[in-house]
Specification:
Helix content: 10-25%
Shape: globular
Number of helices: 2
Distance between the termini: 55 Å
CATH topology of one domain: Beta-clip-like
Strand order of the largest sheet: 3-9-8
Structural class: alpha+beta
CATH architecture of one domain: Beta Complex
Amino acid sequence: MWLVKKSKVHGSGVFATKNIPKGKKIIEYIGEKIAKSEGDRRSELRIKKYLNSDKTGSVYIFELNKKYDIDGSPLYNKARYINHSCEPNCEVDIIDNQIWISSIKKIKSGEELTYDYGYTFDRDDYKDHPCRCASKNCIGYIISSDDWGKFLKHLKKNINKLKKL
């Protein structure tokens, strides 16, 4: 139903090998189940590693629930290659303590699978997460669509400050 190959969005991506109907569970995001505190620790370490190098990287820590995360960094977790998009064709569903990527629209064979990573807007670090999805509605950064209003308000406020200078 899918395969991993080079992506125009970022690095590798996951692509449909046949048409996928809307509402279909496609792939499970798998890895080591870890406590939230361990997930936070690993995330910080990985972020520091990439900030202190000329490489780009991914953290692969996915929130499962209030107590646990999934560390999806093992190479056997092919779902880790699904890229973010501001116009996704998939969404994340947590079903029976499993993280599933499911289609939210019809996906054609050859099309890249994408979902909204759901990053909360943070004035201090949103610039660390540029979006490369190139969709017509792309806002330029990986920010949850739920927070686009906050982001646009922030931009407008800063533009108004610059106009006053």
